[in-house]
């Protein structure tokens, strides 16, 4: 655990596996909303409605929402959806193949695929994406660009609210319709359903896009690994766990704030101080993982913490695993000889703490 000396806010950076595991499951550390950041200057705090996702919810309302969603996100529900997930992957890959080679795999596949899956399961219209995606992305950058977040949040809330009204009028076989019904029966309040919808737009697809894109980059950078997975599909479940450990996306994503003075990793964290657990660093801690910098598709055991821990652990973990597994398998089937396109390099957003390619030119 390290004290961030020059940070604007009194903060701790946590990178060791044991410490990260401890802090992300500790109820004395909460996930503050932007206005809850007591150290933000008054003028920078949002004056309108806030982006309250499930992460910022706590207590009985959070527990009730998690309970209402547990069936929909269970391993069994996800298994039932597998054929539809596979069909989405195949349709996108067919369209992608028709346009190349070379082609940008991010635009053609690793970005639309997780979005289509989440839209279909949750009941968000995929065809509305040009309205909500720019807002969701602006809201995601909330702590970096407060001005944009201020503008985007009410619009995003309005979009999800209109979606709830649509589900009330014309319910369908999707998660948002089911939650709306519970709300009408008085089992959940409308704000909780709204928070769920917002959570899906900000947490439900971008992460999987980044993991899938980075997994493909890793495989194509070491082509013998791509060939190995293509020829031995029995390796796929273990390979998915290894990508979850190895891909360096989940740093700077979880922001915690101490509600009381507490001892952590031999240090005293004072009430109000911020704690930044770096999950991706924890997943490369050499005290836990042998040769942590190596992509080992057969790694065992693999106790990574990519999905967090405790009451706020990732509710979409089964769905995310299915997307990674089906997404990679469909790619290996459709393009057995996929490679990085010669003369074109992937491009990256160097300003973002999440390392995943913006474009990924490939040939086949
Ligand atoms: C590879 C993909 C994914 C990774 C690595 C990931 C990782 C995480 C992590 C680390 C957390 C905990 C954050 C915290 O402690 O505050 C989390 C929370 C969450 N994730 Fe995921 N996630 C992924 C995909 C998904 C998907 C596909 C969905 C839903 C469709 C989803 C929905 C959520 C929600 C709603 C929460 C907040 C849960 C709560 O606070 O109760 N995630 N995710």
Structure characterization notes:
The model has no long low-confidence stretch (mean pLDDT 91). The chain is built from 14 helices and 12 strands. Helices cover 49% and strands 9% of the residues. It has a domain at 46-245 and 286-336: Cytochrome p450. A hairpin with a 7-residue loop joins strand 1 and strand 2 (11-14). It is globular and about 55 Å long. The strands form 4 sheets. Strands 1-2-8-5-3 form a 5-stranded mixed sheet, covered by helices on one side. It is an alpha+beta fold and 364 residues long. The protein has helices spanning 17-24, 59-69, 75-98, 105-110, 112-122, 129-140, 146-169, 175-184, 190-203, 206-221, 223-231, 236-246, 279-282, 317-334, and strands at residues 2-3, 11-14, 29-30, 103-104, 256-258, 262-264, 267-269, 274-277, 339-340, 347-348, 357-359, 361-363. The longest helix is centred in the first third of the chain and has 24 residues, at 75-98. The structure holds protoporphyrin IX containing FE. Protoporphyrin IX containing FE binds next to helix 9, helix 10 and helix 14.
């Amino acid at each position: 655990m390290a004290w961030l000396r020059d940070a604007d806010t009194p903060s701790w950076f946590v990178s060791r596996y044991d410490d990260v595991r401890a802090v992300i499951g500790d109820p004395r550390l909460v996930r503050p909303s932007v206005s809850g950041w007591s150290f933000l200057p008054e003028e920078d705090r949002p004056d309108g409605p806030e982006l309250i996702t499930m992460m910022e919810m706590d207590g009985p309302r959070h527990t009730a929402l998690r309970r209402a969603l547990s069936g929909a996100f269970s391993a069994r529900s996800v298994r039932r959806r597998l054929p539809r997930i596979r069909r989405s992957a195949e349709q996108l890959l067919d369209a992608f193949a028709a346009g190349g080679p070379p082609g940008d795999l991010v635009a053609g596949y690793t970005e639309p695929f997780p979005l289509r899956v989440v839209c279909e399961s949750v009941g968000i219209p995929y065809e509305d994406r040009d309205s909500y995606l720019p807002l969701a992305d602006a809201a995601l950058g909330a702590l970096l660009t407060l001005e944009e977040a201020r503008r985007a949040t009410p619009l995003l809330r309005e979009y999800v609210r209109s979606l709830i009204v649509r589900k009330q009028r014309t319910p369908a076989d999707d998660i948002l319709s089911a939650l709306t019904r519970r709300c009408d029966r008085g089992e959940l309040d409308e704000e909780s359903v709204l928070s769920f919808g917002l959570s899906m737009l900000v947490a439900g697809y971008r992460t999987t896009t980044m993991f899938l894109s980075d997994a493909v980059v890793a495989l194509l950078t070491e082509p013998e690994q791509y060939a190995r997975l293509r020829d031995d599909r029995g390796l796929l479940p273990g390979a998915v766990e290894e990508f979850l450990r190895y891909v360096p996306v989940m740093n700077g994503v979880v922001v915690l704030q101490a509600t009381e003075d507490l001892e952590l990793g031999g240090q005293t964290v004072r009430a109000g101080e911020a704690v930044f657990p770096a999950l991706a660093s924890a997943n490369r801690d050499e005290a836990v993982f042998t040769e942590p910098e190596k992509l080992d598709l057969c790694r065992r055991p693999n106790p990574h913490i990519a999905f967090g821990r405790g009451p706020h652990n990732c509710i979409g973990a089964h769905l995310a695993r299915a997307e990674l597994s089906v997404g990679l398998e469909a790619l290996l089937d459709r393009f057995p000889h996929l490679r990085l396109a010669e003369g074109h390099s992937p491009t990256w957003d160097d300003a973002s703490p999440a390392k995943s390619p913006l474009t990924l030119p490939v040939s086949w």
